[in-house]
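Dear colleague,

Following up on Tuesday's group meeting, I ran the structure prediction for the two-component complex that the binding team flagged. I've pasted the input sequences exactly as they went in, so you can double-check that nothing got truncated or mislabelled along the way. The structure tokens for the whole assembly follow below. Feel free to forward this to whoever is handling the docking comparison.

Inputs:
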Amino acid sequence: MLQQLINGISLGAIYALIALGYTMIYGVLRFINFAHGDVFMIGAYVGYFAATSWLARFFPIGTVESTVLVFFLAMAICAALGAIIEFLAYRPLRSRPKLTVLITAIGVSLFLEYSGQLVFSANPRGFPAIIMNRAVVHTKTLTIDTVEIVVILLSLVLMFLLRVIVMRTKIGTAMRAVSYNQQAASLMGINISKVITFTFLIGSALAGAGGVLYGTEYPSIEPLMGILPGLKAFVAAVLGGIGSIPGAALGGLIIGLVETFVSGTAASTYRDAIAFAILIAILVFKPSGLLGKREIEKV
Amino acid sequence: MKSYPALFLSIAAIVGLSFVMPSLNDYVLGRIIYIGIMISLAVSLNLINGFTGQFSLGHAGFMAVGAYASAVITTFLNAQGYAMNGVTGAVAFLIALLFGGALAALAGLGVGIPSLRLRGDYLAIVTLGFNEIIRVIIQNVDFKIHGVDYIGGARGFSVLPLTTFTWVFIVAAVTIFCVENLVNSTYGRGFLAVRDDEVAAEAMGVDTTKFKVRAFVVGSFFAGVGGGLFAHSNFDITPLDFTFLTSIDIVVIVILGGMGSTVGVILAAIVLTTLSEVLRSVPEFRMIIYSLLLIVLMITRPQGLLGPATMERLLRRGKREKPLVTPVES
């Protein structure tokens, strides 16, 4: 029971990291970035190559330097990728109907998935053990290992950093202003495009970190690995109230816990369906999510 | 009748096809049957996505319901020793297809009702979620009656190969006939009104909720029948035939063909299914081409390659008339 709680929290922490990207991008642009789960996948691959390619000669796997390098590269490259996607695919559509942007996002998502298959091959690869895996607590009923601790701690640190950026810095204030009222924000002299690019940078960097953490905890990566975690993280974002940052963290945690507990019961084969059932329930009964604000639709 | 050229064109195509049909080998015939099934699926999805403006990503889920429901019936009848050939077989297959369609329509009603409050991207994700839920449920169902396997969970379900070109042709024709006549009727203007401006439609007294549910129910019915044909054109079906990636395949056809243009969607179904056959050995390329097409099309030509306005122009050369169906962008 306690074991499942720990497993659930560490899975939930990863979902929360991805969900934060969804929720932030939704906050400023009011659309679901379908490709976010695939940015997460790219993050895992960048981590894989950073840890196993020629770079590993200078930074042997398992050392602290190597771990830092892996995370840094994954986050940096994903951030750049997110900004490029925004610039090439979404920016030309900014004033178009939402459906058009949604279809483009699906296109970007498919593009990343299948270019991934072409470039990395569709075969799963074993993710290197970038964090020395040792059991910290080991009793008859409970095992907590270093990987789980690192996953939980690092997610907490990243979420804390995000909170500082959003609440305490100038660009964070601008982000909140844009998500509150884009037109008014632009009248106040905020450069909307800059804020949107920044949001994509941060959100995609978090997804990249999530990808590496996911690879560390479930060490098999393949180009379509981003689809399900991406969708579940989206559910987490909706559950917490889309647009709300603490909500995304809470939602991720809940989805991770529910999924882990369902896996432990007889209904484990329904594991992948449970997130969608939660999504439908939340949209029917409380569409604004647990911590979200109700938006009044203006005509 | 408004579109005589289209009618003549299709009759000519069918007459031509019937001449070459006997000389075709099984492979080509199988592909033609598959194209026909995709036409029914895409045209029925076009009613939901194109004409009513609701973005569904769950068509494969309804297809799965129809496929499994009809296959259960034909397998059951076959196991009972009922003759599955000749007239009796045809009647049995028709009943199975209709039953599959009806069950899928029921599923469509089930999806439609909770989804009414959602629009755009939320609806897309919820329908995708329904698709996955249906698939996971099927994956977990497996039972035997008198030693005959039904559903078969993840292993797959052996199905009698009953689908012939005649069946596919009739179903595709009926689908096109129903969808076209529905949206072009006085009553069917409601679907277009919901798409073009939901608020205005509601203000004019159109019951938008009902129209959305109707679009879902009718679309799902034909998806179910198409799924039944699909099941009986293969020797077995597995839940993996009906993932949301299959839905995306159908959605791509509708978008590229032009949302709200039946002729465009039919052409897109033919072209894209053939294209995927050509690129069979490199499936990644097919999806990369699809995805790039989607992105570039959305940026440069969101109404699709053959949007309704373009079709109207092509079909009535010379006659400059204002098209009744306006493009999606508003």
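The mean pLDDT of chain A is 88.

Cheers,
M.
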